[in-house]
């Protein structure tokens, strides 16, 4: 029990919120701060917003400037749409801070007490495994981002050294042909795009981690349901042979000394399920609009990235960087659909776990309570975008098909 008490559910989210605070996309969470440090971090967040909005405005101006050239528009839009998609999530994180704080409190057991708490060795095991997976996913994304940023730094320098013209995707109010201005413009563009990409993938991993946490909580709930009637000192059903009548008299578990304990366990399971349901719906509500933008923009971004990549030499540094970028875009959408599907599948198994508990040891009165709970848990928890489009692998395939259709149209 000591190990359980030491492990908190929020530990699986600590790397994500630390990374968000590092780029100023969210406040510093669950760490004591002096007023001076808090002020400095808020100032840093303001400057982060200023640079990000300036960067996006430069690309909007660039799109207007090159509106008569399809190739140049594609060069700019595949970056602009990605950053606008990132802005949507950033707005959700900052305008709905209080609601996200409530999610953090639920995860950290501040507002719900022990509902999400690990109380058994199995709970600790699955929580730690999930935290490790989420941490590795975040690290993998960050590695891909820095690889892509490095490649985007290299290929303009290589192209310029080969005497080719280098055009930036953003607008600059000065010429970038000289070495000094070119170097400054390149450093500015690379730093900001890497900065935004870092924040963007961190937000993605954080939202996905919320859904993954809901899935793990359902696993914990299923374990509790399957162990509903089990006790350390449990005895089998007391079956005694009545010597006079040769009849068996059966004593049910919930009619013995365990009655209060079993009823309390069922009550906690019901509370746990409804807390998970509210948690998943709140995550869906907070990021609903951002997810609508994400799914629709991703189709265009993947399409335009493919349009740009088919015209490049496979031996060029730009091709490698674009391939990494395309992989990030595909994975960015995939993780939402994958973990959304995982949550739905796991929630569909709750009734199976109820049936797997040793319900034959329970009285008919208690069995009716289990039937009522099975009716309430019959509908799976399925995350949706705009409350309509399911976050599922089928949706992922549909988006890829739409991207290919758009690419075919654009290529003609």
UniProtKB/TrEMBL annotation:
UniProt KW Transmembrane helix keyword: yes
Chain ranges passing through the membrane: 138-158, 178-198, 286-307, 319-339
- First and last residue of the signal peptide: none
One family from Pfam that matches here is: 7tm_6
Give the bilayer topology.
Multi-pass membrane protein
Q: Where in the cell is it found?
A: Cell membrane
Q: Which family does it belong to?
A: Belongs to the insect chemoreceptor superfamily. Heteromeric odorant receptor channel (TC 1.A.69) family.
Question: PANTHER family of this UniProt entry?
Answer: ODORANT RECEPTOR, ODORANT RECEPTOR 19A-RELATED
Q: What is this protein called?
A: Odorant receptor
Q: Look up and give the organism this protein is from.
A: Helicoverpa armigera (Cotton bollworm)
